[in-house]
Design a protein that fits this description.
The structure is a single chain. By secondary structure, the protein is of the alpha/beta class. Helix content is 45%, strand content 13%. It has a domain of 101 residues: 3-Layer(aba) Sandwich (Rossmann fold). The protein has eight helices and six strands; from the N terminus they run βααβααβαβαβααβ. The strands form two sheets. The protein has a four-stranded parallel beta sheet. A two-stranded parallel ribbon has the order 5-6. The N and C termini lie far apart (37 Å).
Amino acid sequence: MKVGLFIPCYVDAFMPEIGVATLELLERLGVEVHYPLDQTCCGQPMANAGCHADAAPVERQFLRCFEKFDCVVTPSSSCAHHVRERKNLHSNCLELCEFLHDVLKVREFPWARFAHRVGLHIACAGLRGLGLASTSETMYSESACSDRASASTNDAAFP
């Protein structure tokens, strides 16, 4: 499988270590990862603001970068959701946890240890747009974290 790694513009600008960690994890799991150097953005910020004409050239650039890949993997559920919703971009764009769980069938990370209390937050796009609640919760419960925090809320929007 030919996998293209898409690092969203906001990750590249504000948290580039997430992009590096994503690449390192995929490579550690034996994935041959390709990173198109001319990638920029998927167009989501403009499209979400209703500026579809402004999003169009950015989306075309995304397509040029990733059309040759069987699968596009990104550490962003909102970008994966946008790319999948825009039918002309890429039909097989997967959020990282989705790719690990559903494609690679990863169920454990025996080398990973984190000695701090860890909580799980599923982003809105992952929860509502991609339906990743069970995937993320399964991976979280099977992780090697020694102290997992459970979330609770009284917000009716989050049953």
